[in-house]
Input
Amino acid sequence: MGRITETVKALLIINVIFFIGAQTLGNNAFEWFALWFPKNDNFQVWQIVTHMFMHGSTSHIFFNMFALYMFGSHLENSIGQKKFLFIYFFSGLGAVGFQILFTYFQFNPGYQAYLESGFSPAEIENFIQKAIASGQYQVYPNIPKDVTQKMIGAFVTPMVGASGAIFGVLAAFAVLYPNLPLYLMFIPVPIKAKYLIGGYFLLDLYSGITGQAILGPSNVAHWAHIGGAVIGFITMWYWKKNSFNQHRWY
Output
């Protein structure tokens, strides 16, 4: 996709440094820099940004950085450094908003069910902490087991990765170059960017709605991908639509 830009190079280096540092520090790194559910004591405001540079595995960071390398420089060369960084980080923030909202939808039904059963907020938190520590919990007859599982899962599962920001970059790329032919590895058939990236978005949307993972592991934050893509798409569509110099985009 052409020569790598300095901005993309810097983002790649920062992500790799964070990844190596996290492997060295272990769980402490994820407690400090991963994005935790706001009701969790581990939550800190800076995690809204730092989680974008944290990755859970080698494959996780590889595929994110590969996508950044393949599409980031081309996009930055087209729209400039400032707009590229705006899309990257604003998409990452959009991913946070979508994922936290989805997590609240998972957490609140259980939380309300326990409140209605006579638990105080402190007792609910104590119940969750005991469940996390022991790996098991008491099942109450009037509270469905899956409601409790979702509540605990939402509370204890952190969000990590640059995927939301990357999906914003991909969506912006598809808006800017919708008909550019792209190739999948091992499939020598060109697919237009709007179909390839749009299809990936629809798969994530399906997985987010149904909870059934089609591509990748089951713990993927699909709503973070969706949030990042939505922000990247809207931002790039607005800029392209309102550009006075139409030739700037080509």
Residues 170 and 197 are 7 Å apart (CA to CA). The mean pLDDT is 88. The two ends are 15 Å apart (CA to CA). Strands lie at 181-184, 187-192.
